[in-house]
Amino acid sequence: MAEQTISNITKISPVKTQHSLTKADTSAAAMPVAQVKQIIAALILSFSAVLIFLAIDGLTMPMRLSIAVFVTTLVCWVILDLPETPVALSGAIALAVSGTVSNEAVYAALGKDIIWLMLAAFILAAVLQASGLIEKLLMRNLAKLRSVSALFYLLTLVIFATAFIIPSTSARAAILLPVYAALAAAGGNAVLNRALALLFPTIILLSAGASLTGAGAHLVAADFIARTGGRELDFLSWIAFAAPFSLLISLIACELILRLFLTAQQRKEALPLMADNYENSRLNREQKILLLITGATVLLFATTSLHGIDMPLIALIAALLVTSEKLSPVPFKKALKLVEWNLLLFLAGTLVIGEALLSTGTAEYMAQRILSAFGTGLAGYPALIVGFAAVVATFSHIIINSRTARATVLIPALALPLAGLGIGATPLILVVVLASGFCQTLRVSAKPVTLFGTAEPQPFSQKDLLKLAIWLIVPFISLLMIFALVIWPLQGLKF
Question: What's this model's pTM, rounded to 2 decimal places?
Fold first, then answer.
């Protein structure tokens, strides 16, 4: 018995030792990378502090502190890769403690109408996910389709429609993941599953721009537009300007995925049979009422100018209705636990930082300095200005992972300075925030890509993502420029 035990230990020990060494080697290899990032961050922050507080003339102390907090948050997000929400809240608190903004400004950020709007929308999204309403509506229509191409276009339109009722791209991804899982299981085809797994996150991300509530970044943009005296964009006006672009680029992305990852024969193939319970099932009473409430909510959002009820109040009423005991599969208390509080706090923190940049005059000062240094070559050429803004914002996802963080950084640092060249701030802010929605180059660039890319078995590789991004980025930027320079002016949004 003792000999057998010793023998077992002898067999196991080398494996454990090898595993231990491998883990140690991995840690040792990772340490220098982390240290290099810390050194780079320390150098940038030290140089920035000297520049902000000693070298630059003409700044008031609140302006210096606003720039310092802005640069620090940017370094924490981009170089140190720290969690977005603690960094944003720390920046907001630092601004309050230093007296740059009032304490009330920090507290008021949590009470802003856009925070309440997102809170209520998250509750509605939680109920929709638990009810299985979207999944059932989609799966019931699959039996009517005749080909794989038809399936992809139906999915694109349905995913696009969810942008108007579900806040945040990660919430939409969580709701739509079961649909992908059911399709993947029914198909049992690795090639088809790869294309489907690429389609879902791609359309989720691109279609988000269609709705004011599609992403927190849009609310940040709307806040900047209102504060800079631009045209105030409500739910319906945002749809009028952004939804056509988002729909067209979503359809282009769908076609690219079909052609890049499926052959002509595969695109024409008949769909595998779906589960009968989806084809023959009917919506139950609760689901019908939920669908009615959701539709009414979107309709009321779009007609706020007629009835005068604010969007947050409409959303709160809808949230209370869908969580009533006789209707909802998710009671109100549980729905509150499913709210993405992390995103709401992050949004509140970024609003405080944005307010500090505007109220202290820092954003205007930064715009003037950037223009004096780099703007002369672009002045008088609207196409170059829009193109430059679109390219920079599109590629920004490679270094700034969060969509809302990109908006917080790029609007004061890019859109507002370029607006000083004689172009309207509102269209430039729209260009920047819509361009920053392109974030499917890397698996870590967006949560929906991560969620679908890590499904088991892994449906697509980083190489597949890069291939799609290379083909998609040119039509994306080109179409955005066409809308900014041609379509939007025809709609009354002139430069």
Answer: 0.73
